[in-house]
């Protein structure tokens, strides 16, 4: 099977995604969207999430591993200790190879900035689920600009929570000419 990778990210108007290894905003509607997108399956199997070591450590201990999903942490640290059932890989390519041998439906790359940057160069990336936060926050981590290899395929209505407007956008890789 050829793995297809999907990115899930929330970014502000300046592509800011984080500050001090935390999300700069709290938007329950976006958390719910993330939860259902990455958890729901059609065939009763499970999805995989691929996460950078820093983002993993930013998830509160009681909420990790992300339940009902195969969790794969990327780190170069060979002595990194992960909880039982969580896989550790030392490159995106090795995560894709590992996934090839494990039954799953979809594979979501959930950040952070370093992992997004690398995934955007990976030919297996097919879809970007971007929650666009319609403000600018103070951020020290950013998502790279989405270039013209990808086209906007769907946009939701604008929603608002705690005076923050946001909308869900889906970008798909353009097919080769
Ligand atoms: N808004 C959003 O949707 C969203 C989503 C996720 C995260 N974030 C934010 O993003 C920020 C974290 O991003 P970040 O760039 O600092 O960290 P990160 O991408 O989460 O993790 C970086 C770490 O991943 C490992 N790594 C990176 N590339 C690798 C590779 N090719 N192979 C194996 N391991 C690799 C390294 O771990 P080792 O150092 O252990 O080798 C590296 O230090 C936080 O502020 C977080 O809140 C935002």
What is the structural class?
alpha/beta
CATH class: Alpha Beta
Q: Note the total helix count.
A: 4
In round numbers, the mean pLDDT is 96
CATH homologous superfamily annotation: Dihydrofolate Reductase, subunit A
Describe this structure in words.
With 177 residues, this protein is α/β, with parallel strands linked by helices. The chain has a single domain, classed as Dihydrofolate Reductase, subunit A. It has helices at 28-39, 53-58, 92-100, 113-119; strands at residues 5-11, 16-18, 47-52, 69-74, 87-89, 107-109, 125-133, 141-142, 150-155, 159-161, 164-173. The strands form two sheets. Strands 1, 3, 4, 5, 6, 7, 9, 10 and 11 form a nine-stranded mixed sheet that branches. The two termini are 23 Å apart. The model has no long low-confidence stretch (mean pLDDT 96). Bound molecules: NADP nicotinamide-adenine-dinucleotide phosphate (NAP). Residues 9-10, 17-18, 21-23, 52-55, 58, 74-77, 90-92, 110-115, 118, 141 line the site of NADP nicotinamide-adenine-dinucleotide phosphate.
